[in-house]
């Protein structure tokens, strides 16, 4: 999110805060082993669900294919992604770049908040999450008073934002997520960062929805925890306690977490061959990446005071966290093609380089979120908005690494 939040947090909260009971090293090691086992089990379950989705394609006479949507972080700029998805609905179904029925949706930070609605994928669900961003208010995120900052878990109070998120997590959405996962073999994920154990944690939203539905009346806490933990900007927003650990924004460990590891792809290919037979065609994979941010850095003169230098440095660091995972995904796709002969496509879209954040207002100001939603809506309706890996490293972005498209 905005560098100002992070910089202000570092400067104002250093050395402040309430103490927690110290967790012994053996207990931390035990927790780390438990979380590792849980994450392995979750990954295996996700792979099994993906194989079922591919088997469904084959049974229906369709070429097996996985469509994977990845939604980046970006704070209130998630309004762009929400608007883009809503606009994408208007692309005719027979167009090669029409919105598919996603098999996997992965969201980080603000992308996590959009992910459940993107998995449901109806015009109604996408309009619903877009309305949430359009209804944003500056008081969703409020700076604490100087007195209130002493010992506080965060620089900002987020009661308004938390209420807006929780208000969308109802039993109907939970039932839709469970049905998508169990009946249609489609799944959505968010990622948070366990800062006690120092590792990313993957959440499968259909599993969280099922936990909420098991309670009577419906309990939104399991879904809320998975989404809010992923969107907890370190220091700026309060961390989310989960089983004795503190969780913050999943973007600490990158923007892309699902089916973006060669070992997992090796397992997917092996499982598919066992399921479909060694002569069956391998599945195609299409990655659709929506950046609620931009790769381009605005050039400007930075003044020498340390605060200006620090602010600009944080801005550049966050920008690199957006760019690097996309470059890695492009290289990873080429690796899958060379290693397994998979047909892999990577397409991405970003907030255009010429868009400028209005000065002197909060990112949650309605003029910002509505402007970004309008922009996303317009670009989503135009299939030409999608870029390929050949566009990485071009335009105004300068990099020492240039990705070129592989042979067809």
Structural write-up:
The chain is α/β, with parallel strands linked by helices and 408 residues long. Strands 1, 2, 5, 6, 7, 8, 9 and 10 form an 8-stranded mixed beta sheet that branches. Strands 3-4 form a two-stranded antiparallel ribbon. Helix 3 packs antiparallel against helix 5 and helix 3 packs parallel to helix 13. The longest helix is centred in the first third of the chain and has 35 residues. The two termini are 37 Å apart.
Describe the protein's topology.
Elements: H1 3-13, H2 25-59, E1 65-71, H3 78-88, E2 104-108, H4 110-120, H5 123-134, E3 142-143, H6 146-149, E4 156-157, H7 159-166, H8 171-182, E5 187-194, E6 199-204, H9 205-214, H10 221-230, E7 240-242, E8 245-249, H11 262-276, E9 284-290, H12 306-340, E10 344-349, H13 366-380
Parallel strand pairs: 1-2, 1-9, 2-5, 9-10
Antiparallel strand pairs: 3-4, 5-6, 5-8, 7-8
Helix pairs in contact: 1-12, 2-11, 3-4, 3-5, 3-13, 4-5, 4-8, 8-9, 9-10, 11-12
Order of helices and strands: HHEHEHHEHEHHEEHHEEHEHEH
Q: Indicate the low-confidence ranges by residue numbers.
A: 394-408
Helix content: 40-55%
Query: Nearest-angstrom radius of gyration?
Result: 21 Å
Strand content: 5-15%
Give the distance, in angstroms, between the N- and C-terminal Cα atoms.
37 Å
Q: How many individual β-strands?
A: 10
Q: How many helices in DSSP terms?
A: 13
Largest sheet: 8 strands, mixed
Report the average pLDDT across residues: 89
Q: Which overall shape is indicated by the principal axes computed on the Cα atoms?
A: globular
- Class inferred from helices and paired strands: alpha/beta
